[in-house]
Amino acid sequence: MNSSAKSKILILLILGILFALIPIITTNFSFITGITNKGSDYSDNSNLDRKNLKISAVSGKIHIINNSGWVDFRNDGNCTGNGTYSEPYVIEDLIIDGGGSGSCIWIENSDVYFKIENCRLYNADNAGIRLEHVNNGQLIDNNCSSNYFGIQSSNSNNNSISGNTANYNDNRGIYLYNSINNTISGNNVIYNTYRGISLWASDSNTFSGNIANNNQWSGIDLLDSDYNNITGNTANNNQWLGIELLDSDYNTISGNTANNNTSFGISPSGDYNNASGNTVNYNRYGIYLSSYSNNTTVSGNIMNECGLCLEASINIINYSHNIDTTNLVNGKPVYYYMNEVNLGPNNFTNAGQVILVNCNESLISNLNVSHSSTGITLFYSNNNTISGNTANDNIVHGIFLTFSCYNNDISGNIANNNEYGIMLILSNNNDISGNTANYNRYGIMLIFSNKNDISGNILMGNDECIAEDYCQGNTFRDNEYCDYGELRGISLELIILISIISGGAVIGIATLLLIRRKRKRIQ
To answer: Rounded to two decimals, what is the model's pTM?
Structure first.
């Protein structure tokens, strides 16, 4: 077809698409102009716990400074008690509108015993309840929704936060900073814009029985926080992470449920962590160990439609973990080995997932490692054979080799419907032959990987069949590729005609032909 004819077809195609999009654009514009700040399910203010609020009184915002502030507050008839363990000060049954500024209840520099119970605290641009340099408090059965933070604690120790509701906050539901030996239990923390329950630089705290679902980043996360106990919590349907630990040492994670989060389920990061007895389903990664983790114990976890991930990092060879086969992916054991030689089929019986670090001259064969996060992962591992395995429907990788994996034979495997069928990073002189990697985002992906031989693979229906970035000397022979440029059996002229007649029924097809990204097509 000459260039003039191609230009005419392209112009007609664009006109057809624009014509078909007119009603869609008009409809979407009408919809956008009617958007409100909160969706129909955002009924937190109108659907309160009316049984409790029947006995509640409307109050102005409360700010108590120092122990003497409690005395004045009680003497003014605003609370009961005397600040002792047996008779704590009690604030209860109040409704406080923060008016869009500050905090509804703010306690500072206090170490007397107190309770804040059964209060409804909302519309604060700081926190429903804010504790700053406060010890010996109990926050019980409060509704701290629709604020910036639901409950915020900084430099505060030996407090109990239990049975509270902290939903629809603009940042975190419950947030502790530099706070030690607190108990966070039985709270309901959902639909927060950023994170559900979050710790930063906070040690020796206990989390138990909390529900941290449907938050836009993570359910529960710890940063630079050590010796914490996270047990029996639920962290489902968070958009990115279920339970996350970063640079956090000596933590115990047990008996939690983290289902259906988009990315990470439980991600311990730090030294001497313990992750045991968890259920983590449908995450991008069920359990994620960062590159600075060391001596992490992971046992008894249940991961469905997801799995365990060790962060790909040059540091990984310097650290070791205790990860045993009591961890299950889709009901099958996780096999993690480090510094081993000559592993064979008996070392991978009925594997749900395989991870090798610095393991050489081993055979991984005839396994079905599908529906995980990554089916088979190798770090710093040489002269291994990966053959005859099925690694389909994994969220990220079917087969993944990274950081100095040399002279491995990857042959006769099936790796379909993954994000990456087979992926190599910083790995040279490997043989990738006779594999089937169909309907992935990338069939075979090579990054900083040189002198690999890729031959005789079947790579159909992928967004990109083979892609390489920053590579030298790879050879490609006799691979069967998907076709980028044609929609089989349908001409461009027919697409244009159908587009105009149907008003956009095949817009997706036409647009795909126009905008499909071609990184590098390799013959």
So the answer is: 0.71
